[in-house]
Design brief:
Blueprint: H1 6-19, E1 25-29, E2 36-40, H2 42-48, H3 50-58, E3 68-72, H4 77-89, H5 99-111, H6 115-128, H7 130-135, H8 137-142, H9 150-159, H10 162-165, H11 175-182, H12 191-204, H13 218-227, H14 242-249, H15 258-268, E4 291-293, E5 296-299, E6 303-305, E7 310-313, E8 328-331
Parallel strand pairs: 1-3
Antiparallel strand pairs: 1-2, 4-5, 5-6, 6-7, 7-8
Helix pairs in contact: 1-4, 2-3, 4-5, 5-6
Length: about 350
């Protein structure tokens, strides 16, 4: 049997931090005019935060007592106080801490390569502060922290694509991020608009391309084709209407494989599908009847299974036929047959 005394150990290490006994490092944080010093120990940093330990070894700055100094002006004293107490005592108290501060804390933990803390803060924000994350979506996505939040961000984009496609920073979106979005099967955006945005993004990556496509030469189309080589395979060309094929895709047809373009034309002219050899991607799955959210069977965002013999509906308005007079739970036995159509935007 093992007896653990982690609580006292944590408390004692916090006392060591607060007293600063035998410290050999000073970390100064905050704005240069009012930097706040923290007295720490390189041995603790070595085992608890290798990032700061490396900073300690590289530091050439020291005080009159020959104690090395590390400066981090971009980090607030409030944030660093929480971080350093985690490093020493393995505890983080988020009670009464503003969500914006927690997000900044997450950014700092990621910078300091504190993987355990980074993961826990990310999970905390997603579970407890999802409303704030949605309201500050652009800040999150533009922070460069999208790898940790990739799935979460992409789930939001799938339902609210304009958050990213209509943002001022869309053209600076990394290629990998754009591909991860357009290859989703549940992106609630018309395929012709996805094409428009992909073309816009591709052109923005090459400032030498003429602004008027009528002035383009073969080299210009090749440049765009090379830029979009990772994106083009994920466009659902055969889900674009005949009108949009001619109006939107045709002007850029030179960036497509000749066989693919021939098949697109055949499809738009209602040729026999058997004569089409190009891969036909399935349509967006945003109208599917059943999907799963947190292992619960759901219909869109409105209806989900609420136990073995019941359902719960959050919204009743906007459907082609009335499902229920009011929101709430109902037993399966209450209905012999019921059919659900996609709720319209109202």
């Amino acid at each position: 049997m093992t007896l653990n005394f982690y609580e006292n150990l944590s408390s004692d290490f916090i006392k060591l931090l607060e007293n600063g006994d035998d410290h050999n490092v000073i970390i100064e944080v905050g704005e240069s005019s009012i930097m706040q010093p923290f007295k720490v120990h390189s041995t603790v940093l070595c085992y608890r935060c290798p990032y700061l330990y490396d900073e300690f070894k590289k530091s050439t700055m020291s005080n009159d007592d020959n104690i090395k100094i590390i400066q981090k002006p971009q980090i607030s004293a409030k944030n660093f106080d929480i971080i350093i107490k985690y490093i020493y005592g393995a505890t983080v108290n988020l009670e009464k801490v503003e969500t914006s501060i927690i997000f900044d804390l997450l950014m700092t933990a990621n910078q300091f390569q504190l993987e355990e803390l980074t993961t826990r803060l990310q999970t905390f924000l997603i579970k407890n502060e999802s409303s704030w994350l949605k309201l500050n979506f652009s800040k999150i996505y533009d922070s460069g922290f999208r790898t940790q939040f990739q799935n979460y961000c992409n789930d939001i984009i799938a339902k609210h694509p304009n958050l990213i496609f209509e943002s001022n920073n869309f053209n600076t979106l990394p290629e990998a991020a754009l591909v991860s979005i357009i290859q989703r099967d549940d992106l609630q955006l018309e395929e012709s608009k996805i094409w428009d945005y992909v073309i816009q993004w591709g052109i923005s990556q090459n400032n030498t391309l003429p602004s008027n496509i009528d002035d383009w030469i073969e080299k210009d189309f090749q440049i765009l084709k090379n830029t979009l080589q990772q994106c083009l395979p994920h466009i659902r060309y055969f889900q674009i209407s005949k009108e949009n094929i001619m109006q939107k895709v045709f002007p850029y047809s030179q960036i497509l494989d000749k066989k693919l373009w021939a098949d697109i034309l055949k499809h738009s002219m209602s040729f026999d599908k058997k004569s089409i050899t190009s891969t036909i991607l399935p349509p967006q799955d945003s109208c599917r009847a059943i999907h799963y959210c947190n292992n619960v069977a759901c219909f869109g965002d409105d209806l989900f299974k609420n136990g073995n013999q019941s359902f719960k509906i959050n919204y009743v308005n906007g459907y082609e036929k009335l499902i229920r007079k009011q929101a709430g739970s109902f037993l399966i036995d209450d209905y012999e047959v019921f059919q659900i159509s996609e709720r319209k935007n109202i």
